[in-house]
Each structure stands twice: as C-alpha cells, then as structure tokens.
Amino acid sequence: MAKGKKENKPKSKPRKEAIGDVLGPRKPAKSMKKQSKKEPMKKSEEPAPSIVPSFLPAEEEEPAFPRGGKSLLSREEEAEARAEAEEEFMREMKGGHKSNQGKNKKKKKDKGRLPSSLQEPEEAWGSLFGETIGGKLPRFANRITLKNISPHMKLLGIVVEVNAKDLVISLPGGLRGFVRSEDAMDIIPRDASKDSESSFLSRNFHVGQLVPCIVLQIDEDKREGKVNKRVWLSLRLSLVQKNLSLDVLQIGMALIAQVKSIEDHGYILHFGTPSISGFLPQISGDNIQSLKKGQLLQGVIKNIDQARGIVIMNSEPELVANSVLQDLKGLSIDQLLPGMMVNAQVHATLENGIMLSFLTYFKGTVDVFHLRNSLSDASWKEEYPQHKKINGRILFIDPSTRAVGLTLNRHLILNRAPPCYVKTGDIYDNAKIIRVDAGVGLLLEIPSTPASSTAYIFEAIDEAQKLTKKYKEGALVRVRLLGIKNVEGLAVGTMKAAAFEGSVFTHSDVKPGMLVKAKVLAVESFGAIVQFSSGVKALCPLPHMSEFEIVKPSKKFQIGSELVFRVLGCKSKRITVTFKKTLVKSKLPVIASYADASDGLITHGWITNIEGHGCFVKFYNGVQGFAHRSELGLEPGVEPTAAYHIGQVMKCRVISSSAVSRRISISFVLSLKRDSHDLSAKPGSVVSGVVERLTPASVIVNVKAGGYLKGTIYNEHLSDYRGHASLMKSLLKPGYEFEELLVLDSSDTSNLILSAKDSFIKCSMELPSECALVRPDAVIHGYVCNVIETGCFVRFLGRLTGFCSKNKVSDKPVSDPLDIFYVGQSVRSYVIKVDSDRERIMLSLKHSSCRSTDPSFLQNYFLTEKKIASLHAPESSNSALIAGDDFIIGTVVKGEVQELKEYGVVLGFKDRDTVGFVSQYQLGGRVLEIGSRVKAFVLDVSLPDNLVDLSLKEDFLNKGDGKISENVSSKKKRRRDASSDLNLNQTVTGIVEIVKENYLVLSLPECEHAIGFASVIDYNTQKVHHSGFVHGQRIQASVAALPCPSTLGRLLLLLEPTDDIIEAPCKKGKKESMYSAGSLVDAEIAEIKALEVHLTFGGHCRGRVHITEVFDGNASSENPLKSLKAGQRVRARIIGKHKHGKGDHWEMSLRPSLLEEGKELPLPSAAEEPKYSVGDLVTGYVVKIEDEWLRLTISRQFMAKMFILDTSFEPDELVEFEKRYPVGQPVTGRVLTVNEPKKLLCLASHLSKNSESAEHIHQGDVVGGRIKKILPGVGGLLVQIGPHLCGRVHYTELCDQWVSDPVSVYKEGQFVKCKVLEISRVMSVHVDLSLRPSLYGQDKSDSDCKRFSDASELQPDMTVQGYIKGVTPKGCFVTLSRKVDARILISDLSDGFVEKPELEFPVGRLIKGRVLAVDSSSKRVDLTLKSEDGAKTSSGTADFSNLHIGDVISGKIKRIEPYGLFITIANSNTVGLCHVSQLPHTNSEDIRTKYVVGEDVSAKILKMDPKRRRLSLGMKNVEPGSLEDERETGSNNKDQSISSITAVDKYENCSNDLLPWPEELQSRAAVPALEVALEEESDVSDVDNGPIGVLEAASSQSLDSKRSKKQMKKREKEEREAEICAAEERRLLQDVPRTEDEFERLVRSSPNSSFLWIKYMAFLLSLADVEKARSIAERALKAINFREEDEKLNIWVAYFNLENEYGNPPEDAVKKTFQRALQYCDPKKLHLALLGLYERTDQHKLADELLEKMGKKFKSSCKVWIHRLQSYLRQKKEGIQSVVNQALLSLPRKKHIKFISQAAIQEFKLGEPDRGRSMLEGVLREYPKRIDLWSVYLDQEIRMGDVEVIRSLFERATCLSLPPKKMKFLFKKYLQFEKSQDSEGERVEYVKKKALEYVESSQV
Prior knowledge:
Layout: H1 2-23, H2 30-38, H3 40-45, H4 52-64, H5 75-100, H6 105-113, H7 116-119, H8 121-124, E1 154-162, E2 166-170, E3 176-180, H9 197-204, E4 210-223, E5 226-234, H10 237-240, E6 254-262, E7 266-270, E8 277-281, E9 296-305, E10 310-314, H11 317-321, E11 341-350, E12 353-358, E13 362-367, E14 389-398, E15 403-407, H12 410-413, E16 427-437, E17 441-446, E18 453-458, H13 461-464, H14 467-470, E19 476-485, E20 490-494, H15 498-501, E21 515-524, E22 527-532, E23 537-541, H16 553-556, E24 562-571, E25 574-578, H17 581-584, E26 602-611, E27 614-618, E28 624-628, H18 640-643, E29 649-658, E30 663-667, E31 686-694, E32 698-704, E33 708-714, H19 722-731, E34 737-745, E35 752-755, H20 758-762, E36 779-788, E37 791-795, E38 801-805, E39 826-835, E40 840-844, H21 847-850, H22 856-872, H23 882-886, E41 892-900, E42 904-908, E43 915-919, E44 933-942, E45 947-951, H24 954-959, E46 964-965, E47 987-995, E48 999-1004, E49 1010-1015, E50 1034-1041, E51 1051-1055, H25 1069-1072, E52 1080-1088, E53 1092-1097, E54 1101-1106, E55 1129-1140, ...
Helix pairs in contact: 1-5, 19-22, 34-49, 34-50, 36-37, 37-38, 37-39, 38-39, 39-40, 39-41, 41-42, 42-43, 43-44, 43-45, 45-46, 45-47, 47-48, 48-49, 49-50
C-alpha cells in the first residue's frame, strides 16, 4: 500500500494541487515530511508545489477559449476525474493521520470528523480559488485574510480614519489598510502642499466613504517572534482602473472618476487613463455644486463620444446605486472593478456561503457574512435556491487566482456603508443567539440603539466542537465587543470571563492617574513603547522613564519586561504613562482636571518650565499650574534655575484655582505658618530699610521691622520717573537708608517686595490688596507689571492685578501699548468693571479719565531731584545744595558773561561752580559781551545739574529791584512773596518763559510776574510726546499749590484740561475780535525756523509768516529770512487763519506790496489755492535735497520738485549741486507739470517761455547730462538728461577734433554739457546728443571738425577721417559720423599684405582714408587706405590671368575640411582648394591626422575658373624641388606674377558663393584635454630624417589612423554650424542694417538664426530701448523652430545678459527668465550658461548658490564639478579636498580620470601646484600607460617653468615600456622642450640619442 502511494503520488499531484487551492494550505503530515527527507533527489526532480498551481489556470482556460483544438475529455468527464482524485487524496490524508498520531489518536479522530477548514478557519481560508474548478464545487466561499491578500488585488473598502498623513481603510474580512497621502489620488491640487496635507485629505475624503482600492505591498514587521503585517493600498485611478478602455465602456455603466478641473458649465473628469476623459454637466439644483478639485465621485455613463474619447457622466446617487453592469463581449477579469453591481444567479450553495455566476464567463462567491439578511438563521441556504437571480456588488478581485468575491449586503447594494451602532469595548448582557455554526462560532443579535446590530463570536477549535451542545438558538448570553468589521457591518465579540475582568480593555477604559501593568515592546530615542495586557499600547516619554536624565534608555528598560506605570493622559487614543518612582508610588490625590484642584490640596506634579518670576508645574491629563517666585521657598538672591530643574517632581500645595479660567496657583511651601513679624510687614505698610547690596536689576535692603527681614526694590520702583530711577540707582551705595518704603508684596516672608515711589507711599492707605476692596469708577494708583500686544496689566498691592485693553490705554488709537507704557511705570487707573467671582478687574488708562487733580506728580518730581542732589555730594559738603539755597527763584543776582552761544549766554558767579544760563528769548533784545557783568532774574534752579535759568527782561529786573544779591555768598535777602495774593484753584493766565522736558516755567503778568511751574506730563503720559509749547505762549492754568517747604518754595500750577493753547484769557476776549483777515499789526518775532517765522502781537495772539510771504516775487537771490532776527519788531498784515491742533494760528505776510498804509486790501483766504499752469515762471524756496531732487515750497499749499539735471547745464554747477542749494535758497523755474491732487509742481530752470507741454527738451536745446554708461567699442556714451530719459552720444560726437580714443576722457557718473541733435518719438523716445563744444558756441568749427549728415555730401577722392567700427575677414567698417558709415575691403586696407586685419585695425582706431565710391541711393560708401601710387600700381598689375594651369605654387594651409584643404598662395590673398582626391596617399578620414593649419605645402594648379575666380589645386607628384627650379629659371616673371596676385582676391569677395573663412583653425582645438592628438608638427621638420623619423617609420604599421564615425559626424556637424554662423556674419557685415526695418527684413528671411536676432537686440540696446529689445527676444523665442535647440539656447543666454544689465532688480529678473527657460531648454546647458554669466559679472554669491544647486541636480556631470572646483580656487575658499572627494563619490567611475586630470590642471593654474602633482601622481600609479595623462602632467610642469622637475618627469616618461606611437609623441615633446631651452644643442642631441636607443632596442 505504501508503495502504491509513492507510485500514484506523481501522477495525481496536479490534481491534488488544484484541490489544495480549493481547500487552502494544509500542514504536511509527519509521514510526508519523513518521506521528503529520505528522498531528497526525488523531490528535486519534481516540480515545486508552489509552481504547479500557476500552470493550472492556463490549462483550464483552453476548453472555454478553444484555439483550434479540442479537449479529449468533456466537462462532465473532467469533473468526474477531479472528484476521484480528491477522494483518493482524502483517503491518503486520513491514512497518514492514523499511522502517525500514536498517543493522541482519539483527539485526532475527533478532528477528523470536521473539515479542516472548520478546525482551523484562518488556514482554511488561506488560499483563494478562481475559475480553476471544473465541475467540482468548492466547499467554502472565498474570504480575504492576511494570508491570502496579495499585491495587485482590488478591493472595496470604507474610509474609517482621515489622518494628517494617511487614510485608514476598512477592508473585507475585518482587515485594515493604509493609504499614504501621495497614493490617495492621481491629481493633487496645487494648494495641497506638505503643510496642508491634513486639510487636503480631509477636504476630499470623509469617514464612511466607499472607495475602490488596490493593494500596493504588504510589509512584515517581525517583533517578539510574531509577524505583524501592514497592508498598503492606493486609491489612484491610474492603478485601480489601469486596464479600462473605451471599448468596454457602455451607457449606464458606473465608474469612479476624479474632478480634474472646474469649468463654467460643469467638471472635467479624470478616469486614470489618458485615452479617456469625462465631463460632468452642472445642472441647476444638482447635488454636485459642492464638488472640489481633486475629489473622487461615482457616476453613471450617460453618453460616449467614441471619436473624441469623451464620456458624459451623471452623478445622481439613486442612479449610481441602481446602475447594473450589462454583459459585454471581450470583458476580461482585469477590467472588473470593485463596487460594480452585476446581475447574477445562484450557481450553488457552499458550507459558508453561495457561488454566483455572472456576466456569462465569471463565477464568484458570497461569504455568509455578506448575505442580504445579516441575521440569517441556520436555514439561510433555503433562501438561495439554484438559478435564483439576484443583484450583487463586486467586493474584491484577485487577478493572480482569478478569484472574485461579491456581496449581497443590502446597504452595500444601495452603495452606502453599513451603519454601526456599537463601539469596541461595549458589554451587552442580553445578546440573543441567532445561529450556531458548528465548529466555527455563534451569530448574535446585539440590542443596540436605534437598531439592533450583528455580532459574531469565533471560538477556539476545542470550544467550537461543543457549541451545539452548550448553546441553543434564541438563548441570551453576555458578550463584550472586541472589534468591528465595517465592510460586513459585523461586530466581533467574546464571552470569555477574563474579558470582563480587566481594568483596561480599550482606550476608553484608560483614566489619567490609574496604575497599570504593561510590557515593554520597544525602546526608542524618544521613549519606550509599552503594551497593556489587553493589547492597548502607550508611550512612556523619555523624560518620564526615570527621575533623572537617562543617557542610555535601552539599559533602563529591557524589552519584554513587565513594569508598573501610572497613566499621565489619554487624548485621541494616544496614551502616555510615567515610570517616575515618585509619581508611581505617590499616595496623594491626583489632579486630572482643573475642577479637581481645591484650595489646600497637596499633590505631586513635575516642573515643565522655569522662568524668572516662577515655575510652571504640570499635573495629569495636561493640567498645568503656576508657582510664583515667592512660593518657591527660595533664599533672597537665589534664582529659581539654581534651585530646581525641569522634570523634577515636586510636592505642591494648591493656593487657589479657577476651573472657568483654567488657572491653578500652587506653592512649594507646604507649611501655612507665618512669622510674628509678618504682621508689621503686610502689603500696604510703610517701613524703612538700609541698602545691603546692589544687583543689576534691584536693590537689596535690610528692612527695619519686627524681626530680621530682607526686601527687594526693583530698579523701576526707585522713583516715579524713569530717568530719576536710573540716576538714583547709579548713585546708591550700601548703607544708604530709605526712610519710607512701601511693602508691595509679602507673600514670600523671607523676601519682601518694596517700592520707594513717593506716589505709592503717600496713598498707601488707599491701595487695594483684594478684589473686594476695588469699586467701579474709582481712580487708583498702581504700576504696570506687564505689557502685551493686546493691552497692559496693572498691579496694586500683593498680587491683585487688573487689565487694561488696548483700546483703553490712550485717548488716541495706538498700534502697540509699548509705545506709551513701560514695565514698572506708575499709573493712575480708572476702574471700569470688577468681576469678583473670576477676580478680574477691567481698567482704563486714558488720560482723560485718570488725569491728576493735584500737583503731587510735579511736587514729587522736585523732591526726587533734591534727593538725587543730596546723593551727588558727600555728607561733609553741601556744595551741591548751594544753588538751591543761595539762588532763590524770583530774586536778582549778578554774574559775569563767560560764553556767547547761538542758543543763549552762559554766566558765571564768583567763587561758585553754579552755572547760569540765559536763553535767546530771555535776553530782552540786549547785546552782551564776554566779561561784562549783568543783573539777571532767577527763573528756575536745577539741583542735580547745578544749573540756574536766568532772564534779562526788564519786566523781571524792575520787579526784582532792591532784592539784588551782590554776592551770592552773603546773607540771603528775603523778598516779598508775589504769590501771596493767589488762592488755591484760582485760574490764572501765564506766559511760557522756559520749556523744560517735563514741565513749563510760567510768568504770571497779573500777579506781578510771579513765577509758576506746570507739568506737561502726567503719570500715564510719561512716554507720550506733549504738545508743542513755544516761548511767549499764553496758556491758562489753575493754582494747585502755594509756595511752601514741601514744594521747595515753588508755585505749582495745573494746566487746564480743555486746550493746550489759549489765544487769550476770558477777560481779554474783546481784543480777539479786533483782528481779522486784512488787518495791519505790529508784531514781534518770537522764533525763526527754516521756512517760517513765528510772530506774537497784541500780547496774546500768535501768527506765522511763510517764507514765500517775506518778499514780493524774486526780489532777493538769498534766503529772505536771513535779514530777520528774534525779538525784532515788524509790521505785518493778517491774510487768513489756520487751524493748528486744538488752537488757531494767524497767517501773516511781510510782503511790501501788502503793507501799504491807509487802505485795507481784500485778501483771499489762506485756504484758497493758487492756480498754476504749464510754462508759468514761479519762484520757490529749497526745503531739502532728496534722491537727486530739489524739493521746493512754492506756497503753503503747493510744493515743487526739480531734477538735478534741470537746475543747470554747466557741469561745474551740477557737481556742486548740494552746496549751491542750501535750505531756504530761492530757485526760479518754469512749470513742467501740475499735479493738482498732490499739490505738486515739476519745474525746470532752462525751459523756454513758449513751451506749453511736458516735452521740455527740444532739438537744438543745450542741456545738462550725466554719463550713465560707456558703451563698448564705438558705441559712444549713454547720457541721462532727465529723471527717466537718456540720450545717446555717437562716437564721433564726443569732441570736435579727430583724436584717438576720444572716450578715454569720460567716466561714468560724470556731468557733461550736451546739445540735442535729434529727437525721435516714433515708438519710444530716442534722443541723439553731442558733446562737441563747437555746436553750442564755445569753439569755432573748422573744416576738420565737420561731421557728415548724409552720404550725398561725400565725393570720390575726398579725404575723410573716421573710427574703425568692425573688422571681418573681408575688411573693415568705419563710422564717419552718426549717420554715415563706410566700408574698406581688405584689399584696400594697405599697400602691402595684411595678414591679420583684426590686430592691425582694432575697433576704435582712428583712420584717415580716401573715398573710392559713393552710392547715394543705398547710402553705401567705399574707402581705401592705400596711397595713390600704390593703388595705381596694384590696380594696373592685378590680373588673374598671370596664373596658369600647371604652375607649381607654395602656400600655407588655411583650413582643413573633410573634402579637402584650402591653401592660401604665398604673398597673396588668393585661396585655392585641393580636393581630397588630389592629396597624396590619404583619404577624408585621416586628412586631419596628416595636415595641420599653417603648414607650408606645395601644389600644382589643375583647373582655373576665371569667371568665378576659383582655383583647383593638386598635391600629387609635386616635389618641392620643382618649385625651386621654377623660381630660379624665371624669378622675374614669377615675382611679378605673385605681386600681381596680391591686389584683390576676387574669389573671396565673390558675393554669389560665400564660404566661411575662419580666421584661424587649429586642429588641436577640437581634441579633448585627455585625448592628445599625435599629428606631425612643422617645427620638427629638421629632424625628420633623424631618430624621430626612424621612430615614425617603425611605428607606422602599428598605428590605426581611422577615427570613429561618431566623432566624425559630430565634427562635421560642428563645422557646418560654424560655416552657417560665419556665412550669416558675413552676410550681416556686407550689408550692415542701420534701421529697424532692415533688421525686420533680415529676421523674416532667416527666422531660425539666433545670430540675427541677437544683433537686432544689440541694435535696440544701443538706442537705449530696453523694452523693445525684450520684445524682440520674446519674438525670437516664438519664431525659432522648436527643433533648433541650440539657436533657442543662444537667445535665452542673450536674454539673461539683457536682464542682468537692465533688469529691475537684475537678480530677480534673471532668475525669473531662467525659470522660464528651464521649460524649453536642456537644463544642464542652461545652468552652465547662467553660471558663465554670473562668473563673467563677478556675482560670486549667486554663482556659489547656483553651483550648490547644480551639484545636487547634475551630480554625475564632470563639467559641473570642475566649475565648482574653479569657483573654490578663484575665491581662495577652504574645503577644496572635500569637493574633490564629493565629486569622486558622485561621478561614475568612467569619469574619474577625466575629473582628476582637469582638477589637477585647475590646481596648477589657480591653486596649489603640489596638490595638482599629487592628484596626477596618484592616477598615474594606477594608469601608467595613459599617454594623455603624461601629456597633461608635462604641459602643466612646462608652464610652471621648473626645468629640473620637467626633465626628471620626461626621463620617467621616456623610460616607460609603451607602444611606438606613444613613445614617438613623448620624444617629440621632449625634443621640442629642449629646443626651447638649450640654445647650444647639447640637450637636443641627448634627446635624439635617447630616441635612437629606443628605436634600436625596439627593433631588436
């Protein structure tokens, strides 16, 4: 029997494998395993089991799709055969089990009763089956599991999560798949950047959305011996609908599409294939109105346009849900899509589902969980009889096995996701059993709301066998849900008792603060990942892995260990735990919310942040508290950072908490005990203290209270005034005693917070310390403790704080509260609202609400000054107080004038250091001299500065008679108190005498000129700039405090709050009506400003005179204000009234025409605007010079501006522009433009009176200019003549005389005098200028200075002068004037032969020639530089007939072409062609190896074409001797013949057949650096018969002279391009276009020629028309054919150069153009072109940035790395070796030698030669026979010039064993070097000898 098994096994194996596919993979029996071990050879001979099933589908497809043959078995016979094979296989399996199971026989027997798929459901469903089943039906329906899901499988899924970076999709079978954001769709909207991926996904997808997807890959993560798989999906239609074609589409078919774009009438759709596009019409009232770009949608095909490949869609949900796929021929399984609904019929019922047939050729299965009734009982099979027709929706397709799964779920049939009314972790006690599946599990009905749900319980195999006995249908059980299968609408549950006992089952069971036991899964750098017993995972952050910082976390946590943690928080399924021992073992209550915090509660927390004012402490679940610095328990002077660290666990006491405001105040001080002396130092109490020490931010004092206390006075609390506080801090020393200090905060008993502010000390009883003490509408003193963007925080006593919003900080709107408040500032605050529950106080700091009502602010100011003065001086000396004691305000003292200043007079006093000062306003019109003694009246005394302000006005001196202090040291004399008659709160009118920074000194005329003091700032306005007060101004004030000791004897006043400026007191109101517009008044000049004068008149009125109202018209050429002085009495007329702030000003005039006596003139209002028109002559006064513009004031309403070049045309005056126009200088000009809205005029000084337009520059005008640019060559100058206008100066218009290099005397930025020759305004303004002095009358012109304006003015034989404009191989072009150019043929350049005209006649050279011919119609002029004798001789002898066929001529090779050689006949310009067929022993391929440009050759004339002037030459059988014989026999005739040939080369000048004649072609130019060509050189002809010749003969047979066809084609292409360019250049130069029309004709005839387009652009730039040049560049890019890539690239490069020169700004313009060019050109070429531009223009920074970018983009390009290395070397940067190393890593290996050699060359040229040597030595060690490397090495050493090194290197090279060809090259190079070094020839002979030795040795 065993033998029979072995024999039958190979035969039945294919059938068994097919059955295995149906039943799923099985574990091989033990007998089979042993058998496989015993027979390894036999196993290897058989096909692998994994391969066999793959062939079966192909075999079974043949009957269904016959290909010309017929199966031997019918379908019925094949089905019977398969059934027999399956029965045999099952018998073998059972036999194997019985024979190998021994001890567990009974257990295996029980298992044998059940199908293997029921015993192990997952393994039974491990494989999928498709159409490989013949007539035999499978037992089970296909079900998707992790074992059988594979790439390329298509499935229908439901979106269950939309995350920031991915989507989570629920798949059939309860699997989860993940979709990355880039795989979500084909077309990603442009706004879906990386920062907005979350919004991009959430905008296009939603939870519950049905989506078709395809499996990309399945990742396996092996941890702890388990394999966790992750399925990656894609929703991209290009993958899902990859095989969709237009042929299989049908009307009514449902498809998935993506919105590609939104149009006016609908949406353009994308189906994933380029051959099909769709359109969705937008119907009014349709539900597609909210579609977004990129969104996926389902639609039904409404119409198909086969011709255009367009599908019209309809997206109505009902239509989509009912769409059924109809039968269609040619539909393959690859074209089936998940979500399609099909008409199917029941084929058979299976054990766990049904099989359906659909679309004729396809079969699919429906799992029992996807039946229409989700709560089907055990009789569910009766509902699906065979051939029943039903609708099903495709659930999945597996192309590899051709398996198809369908669903009958009623929700999915309606195209919507099944609802879910339960959640994971829920427990249900009354779940009803609906069906018992023997060996599998139970189907339950869950009593959920609003509808019941379905759940299934899968039991283990042992338990599953007892299900029928243990559970009955209809019974109620208790179940806990483990998860949800969204696609099936099915919950998975368990009834195990252990599931109900655990504290943590799901995320929802986790609570902050709970202790949990977890297992460590992984340890990462950011923390440890742990897992609870229920499978829930959590993170233990790195800071919470220990109490202290962990260096190596993996040592602290061992993977697999179980530890006890405490939960920190659980948010969004993200659980964090802690392993800090203090927290884990803590028995204290937990704060998990702000409501958990109660006053006095003690708990644990950990520090998260440490600030200077306290610590932030975190609790559980994100709750945070703050511990103020005073609650940290710190010693005085100790910083929090020194006592605590972040992460430290602290025991905290809750002081206060507010759940509404989410604030918790805590303390690290757990004890509530206070010292006995706290009562005496409570907030609001006044104490004294002695300075102990000073810190940068505070003063530490010892407080004199009930016990030993220390206090801190912050710098801001030393005074109410910021300046006084800083001054006092600088003067304080340890030991100084503060008599009064206010306790602000005593919460920290060891360190009190104190204040020395007088305002706080005086109102200490009124300051609140609790919120209950604050009443609305009260005004309370406080200080600013913080300023933020939205407002200010004001603190009172303790921690009581109020808030003032931004709109309440000032009466005027402010942008930033920091502009008007600073931290620590004393303020008065108005209470708006008090919220006692939330302890919030809303304040207002507006000055109008908080204005001081007493003089305390000013009084404290003077008292603080006295304190500072006392600190200035030592205790033994009172010199600092002498000024205050001896100089009494209101007394008269005597002093001596010491200095005279512009702003006043300085007085000195005998034996005193006190300084007296008298301002200009207080001089009273007196003129003083140094040394004179005067009497002065004391106005003010500044104690800290030891300064006395005095006055010399008679009113004060008369008042002070009899109270003169002759000697300030004498006894003080009492004066009568002038303010004794004043009463408190009395309103008085004062006159401003002195304006101080913080207060005013006023005199009261009504009170015998008593002196009073009024503050201009208040507590809340210390940083606000006060209104401008001027001397002599009358203001209204009230008496606030009479003179007394507390006010230091000063009369203190309060300014009236209504107006800062008072025109007159109330009792003087009658005088106000005395003045009106037109009144004449006598006034006194109070102040003279730059552009106006301030007057006072009538004792109370103020007026101002604008600078334009001083004189009539332009009566003066100087500043009219210079004749006026302060205090001067003048007569003025009132011309109007002007509003100024809160007051008014009289507008006045001093113009003599308005001051006539005896008549009142009807004057216009000052607000009436004057009228100006173009051409008016106006006079203005200089206000300032700004950006080359002169800013003028014309009147109070109108301003004017004048450009620098419009002020004068004399260069000397323009140079001294700023010096010529000081402020106030009058300037006269005519109006160019009038801007009424802006009240602005534009003036010019040289405008003619007749000009009535803005075009103020006309032909013939003389204007001033500034050289903007010196144009290259003979381009001339670009001169700026206006703010936006430039003109061009032709090269011939630079000077009168014909001189060499006339542009050398000019430089950019130089001012010049120009004459306008011509103005053209066709498309843009073009101005031609001249700098010739003779044109504007400075010099007399003569005949030599004449410039021709037209070619008709020239006559033959006329002598003219000009400058070389251009040089070509045909001759030169000469510019004779700006309108006339001429040409000189090369034959007319000289009497002799000109070999290189570009060297002998450079551009710009001055020449003198004779006119040969003039063509007036074409404006062509021909010149000659020959002498008359030479011309006659040459013209008479020039005859082409002197050459004859058969003549042997000598010449030099001019050019080498593949078809032959061009030879220039000696001593002439005649060129002939020697065809390749006429060359001796050569062909076209090796012609370049035999001949070089410049080589002397002999040739015979074979043919002559006199008409076309062409010669055909031959070099075969031509010996040099024949030429010598011919020269000897007929030297006279030959010389005459040769000289006659030199006249004119008609061949070259022929215009019909032009050939390119390059100036010089070197054959080596085309050879790459590392490919050294070994051609013969003419300079070694003398050793041809020596050793080198022998060497050549020896190696001639071994040389292969043929080049590759690829190189030849490349060279031919380059040569053709060079020919075309040269032809275009000659064509352009023969007929140089001078106008735009001529250029237009050229570019139309050759639109693909970049050469012509660029010349056109250059022509426009020469005319300064930049915009037109840009437009030509754009035209060129459009006109040039797209195949002409190089031509387009040339235009782009020219565009770069244009933008780099004229762009605004150039850098941005070039980058913008570059980005455009990248779309059309080769990126590498374009980057190199831009790099060349940057390097040429020395823009190293931009070049470096570009090189950095190119290094990443073109890292495999050798050129890019060489350019980068060059940049480093040129800029002397470090890191060159790193660049080399990086290049070698990036470049392919085949380019390493090329890069190293080039890098070495660059090192020799630009860097360190030693580094270059080391590079070459290193590469030569690996490749010693590379002759190109030796050549490079030798060339660089020769260039360096060290002879010894060079010779040693040659010796090394010539000692190598190389082929003869390479050795020949080395010896020739060696010989050439020695010839250049050794004049005697010793070394030359040595090299020859060495070469001969090599030849002899090689022949041996």
